[in-house]
Amino acid sequence: MPQLTRRGLAAATAVLLGATALTACGSSDSGGEAGAGSGPVKLTYWAWAPGMDKVAALWNAEHPDIQVTVQKQASGDDLVTKIITAAKAHKGPDLVQAEYQALPTLVSNDALADIAGEVKGVEKQFAPGIWQQTTFGGDAVYALPQDSGPLMFFYREDLFEQYGLTVPTTWDEFAETARALKTKDPKKALTTFSANDSGLFAGLAQQAGAAWWTFEGEKWKVGIDDAATRKVTDFWGGLVAEGAIDNQPMYTPAWNKALNTGEQLAWVSAVWAPGTLTTAAPDTKGKWAMAPLPQWTDGENATGSWGGSSTAVTSDSKNKAAAARFATWLNTDPEALAALVKESGIYPAATAAQTSGALAKAPDYFANQPDFYTRAAAIAKTTAPAAWGPNVNVAYTAFKDEFGKAAKARSGFPAALAKVQDTTVTDLEKQGFGVAK
What we know:
The protein is of the alpha+beta class. It has helices at 6-12, 52-62, 77-88, 103-108, 128-135, 157-162, 171-184, 198-207, 227-241, 253-261, 273-280, 320-332, 334-344, 372-380, 392-409, 413-431; strands at 41-47, 66-72, 95-99, 144-156, 213-216, 219-222, 266-270, 288-292, 305-313. Helix 12 crosses helix 13 (334-344). The radius of gyration is 22 Å and the shape is globular.
């Protein structure tokens, strides 16, 4: 996104999820400092990650002057709605865990504080593409990155050797590998195109240079049907249409079986894939390997992301400086990051933590690849920036519906993308958002 301000974002965005727009000047009591009043500063933190209370307990033991209480929440759209509702009533917590794609909606509703003054220099600890998701490319800082999900290529090392396949470094090579496998064994598939998780497709488009939501003056511009995303759509849709890859959704019993039996040899996924494979394909432990995502042009070096969240300070916090201090510790301190990995199972966004502490050793499932996290950290640094907007949920639902039908029919992918674009624009206009054509 171009340089944005809170007022400009609020002016360009109407209210999502049925809430009423709030003023852009911030809560009157949001600028309090740590230590004000008598006794310790007490902060509340809404989060959904498991074990977050155990991580906060480490902070509380070392900081008697600032005590943090974690209140477990549901994730996704339910939490976004709850945060906006609380902000409207000026009864929000001090901190919230927020997915990157939810930040524009929360900022436009004045639910989050700008903490740029409290976190100066912190951006150096994160990959530029990840940091950009918390700043929208401007000077304001609306959250600190917590975890990320850089995309990678996971494949059955033993079966690649058995079938004489080479790990693809470009998407053209990926397509040729899929076709070669089908020629050698029609019952096998390199992978599947799945429409039941929009985040993967968004990450693939991100790698290709897509910018689904951008800002023109005081209006949103939707670019879901842009050239980069059409390239990704044509590529995967073409492979499905010719039968070079499967068209079945992920996370089903049939998909698990395909991975476990070797019917499917590879999976384009994120750094958290080992945890999923451990459950989905337990019999293949130690037989998989990880490589960088194939590139659109030989010699390029970029990846997309699938998932990830941040820690934000709310506009309602009466102890903004203290809350920002805790958020900084939570997402940059070695002890805190190690605890997040252990207790919450996250892949930290802070680059220094991606090869140290709890991530110094490869996942048990990938014990055959001892440099797993070293390679993952190098890939994570190449994460391309993402451009999120205020109705990601609508676009994601439309993707599942339209691309699900196209995958099942093995045709109609370009039309499906156009439909997602139209549905997203129509929803923005219906909600009262300013939309640039």
